[in-house]
Specification:
The chain has about 130 residues and is of the alpha/beta class. The chain is built from six helices and four strands, in the order H-H-H-E-H-E-H-E-E-H.
Length: about 130
């Protein structure tokens, strides 16, 4: 897939140019109603802007799953004991089968779903994994 190759190719330079994505991630995290969550899934986690904004806004969580279709992007995402990184393309049919039903307290996607080849299908699968979405 050409999009994956492009993100992977320029992963090391992504933070220089993702100004809009940084702003979106910051504002999106402000919409979170609670200050503590169990398990969070970040779809299209990239270099970790959602994760960093959760930390800056003092929003706690027990575990954080960073999902991205580019291994190179996940390589630059912050690592710690609460972060699991999963390289997976949400455009693949049944991508959600690697997770359990209602496994997450909240699913967040900052700037990734515009890359969906079938948004209705992706949203249908995501709806099985949590009740709260941003």
């Amino acid at each position: 897939m050409k999009v994956v190759r492009e993100f992977s190719k320029f992963a090391h330079e992504y933070s220089k140019y993702n100004v809009i994505q940084k702003d979106v991630a910051k504002k999106l995290c402000k919409f979170l109603a609670k200050k503590s969550y169990g398990k969070i899934l970040d779809i299209g986690a990239g270099d970790g802007e959602i994760y960093e904004n959760l930390r800056k806004q003092n929003i706690k969580f027990s575990s954080f799953v960073a999902l991205d279709f580019s291994k190179e992007m996940l390589d630059i995402h912050r690592s710690d004991s609460s972060v699991a990184k999963i390289c997976l393309d949400f455009n693949k049919k049944n991508f959600s089968s690697v997770f359990k039903a209602n496994e997450f307290d909240v699913i967040i996607s900052s700037s990734a779903l515009q890359w969906s080849s079938n948004l209705s299908s992706v949203l249908s699968e995501l709806s099985l994994l949590a009740d709260e979405f941003l």
